[in-house]
Amino acid sequence: MSCFRLLKEKGYRLTPQRAIILDILHRAEKHITPEEIYEEARAKYPEVNKSTIYRTLELLGRLGLVDETDLGGDRLHYHHVEKGHHHHLICQRCGRVLDVDEKILDSLREALTRDHRFVPDMRHLGIFGHCLTCE
Known about the structure:
The chain has 135 residues and is an alpha+beta fold. The protein has two domains: 80 residues, Winged helix-like DNA-binding domain superfamily/Winged helix DNA-binding domain (Arc Repressor Mutant, subunit A, Orthogonal Bundle); 49 residues, Ferric-uptake regulator, C-terminal dimerisarion domain (Dna Ligase, domain 1), CATH 3.30.1490. Helices cover 40% and strands 19% of the residues. The chain is built from five helices and five strands. The strands form two sheets. Strands 4-3-5 form a three-stranded mixed sheet, with no helix packed on it. A two-stranded antiparallel sheet has the order 1-2. Strand 3 and strand 4 form a beta hairpin. The chain is globular, with a radius of gyration of 17 Å. The chain starts with a helix and ends in a 6-residue tail after the last strand. The model has no long low-confidence stretch (mean pLDDT 85).
């Protein structure tokens, strides 16, 4: 189902600001911060403000259209869910971010469910540590 149709079905209007934000997220080649979204949106829609960006990202997250990930640096990053689920290894020394396929955490998911009777929501994780290059 398209993002636009889902918004409409849930009773939300597709405002020009929402359309621009969705377009920016969809075209982004990497995870993107609200500040980066704001700068790009402002170029097309000068009236947009930062609170609109944050409210829209919150709404899109609740609707399951974007994933929010902490990649360090005191800023959250966003990713359009249509680009698939994956996880990140984040080096706390050099800041390098490595993408990791979701399957690598299957055994952890199974162990948490089996051993702790807990079903984790592991759609988009950031795992902090350091890369061997930084040792």
